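I had to read the description of the data format several times before I understood it. The format is easy to grasp once an entry is in front of the reader. For illustration, here is how one protein appears when written out as sequence plus structure tokens:
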Amino acid sequence: MECAVFKKKGVDITEEEKKLLSKKEVLLNIDQKSWKEKIYGPYFKTILLFITNKCNLNCTFCFDKANVHTANEMSFEYIKDIVDNNPQVDKYDIMGGEPLLHKDLDKILVYLAKKNKKIGLYTNGSFLSNFKKDYKNLKLNMAFHSIESSDDSLKPIARLANNIKKFQNVYPIKIVFLITEKNKTKLFKFAEYVENNFDNIPKLTIGLVRNEEDYYNDNYEGIVSFAEYTKIIQNFINQYEGKLDIDIFAEGMLYTKNLPRSQKNQINRFKSIFVKNEYTSCLYDIGPDKKIKFNPKKPIKYSNCELCPKTNKDRCLTDKIKLQRIQ
């Protein structure tokens, strides 16, 4: 079922073309004098909790567009059941909608910390000004499409600069630049902005907007093709002269001598739970037709996969290439 946010450009690629594309790999050429590649890991068994569908934005490329802007949210007791019945899970990513709009977010974060879980909080940053500074095991994750814009849906980072500065010495913050057709020439400027404005954020993460429901199809308006993405990334690491470390979403395409690498929990590590008691065993199966009913009182099974069940590759689509700048 196609997500309404993505408009097709024209004729779809064929199933045979999709199969060929899914097997394509591009080696990233890394200048050993400029970059040191770090080993990715450790990998953690992770549950993504989409705790609320409430959101204050209407982003063009929202990957869960079909579900946001309703009043539905998970109860604290429901989340507690999930945590209590899955002691094997190391990490919880708190998603939305906008998680900071959940009325019991404080209770949720405190309980996860009490259970010694790693916590990734994915927020658009709009409500960070009153966010607490004493949560344990917490990392903030924020994605952007622009530096400055009057359009909130482009997530301009400059608008949230004060909030980011307020918390950059409190929690680890992952800043992600998501490449689209409109912003693909702005990557260098965005990296420069991060470097010049946030003294305690040493790294930029780069990714690509895709339609997760039709992942290997380049034929959507506003989406940069995989082929162009690999060229943008190669050009960036060749020419970037700043001091930031760079994490790069491989998007199932890019590879290096260290990625893929078979490690514990590397493949099939993400499980997603949505409001309305729905579940998927892969982050990229978010379409309404992919979700199944979920029992929060039963433990989730994590298969020890050697290949991704979705792509038949020896990696996860969420794996990243980690480059450390050699000064």
Q: What stands out?
A: The chain has one domain: 15-325. The first strand starts at residue 26 and ends at 27.
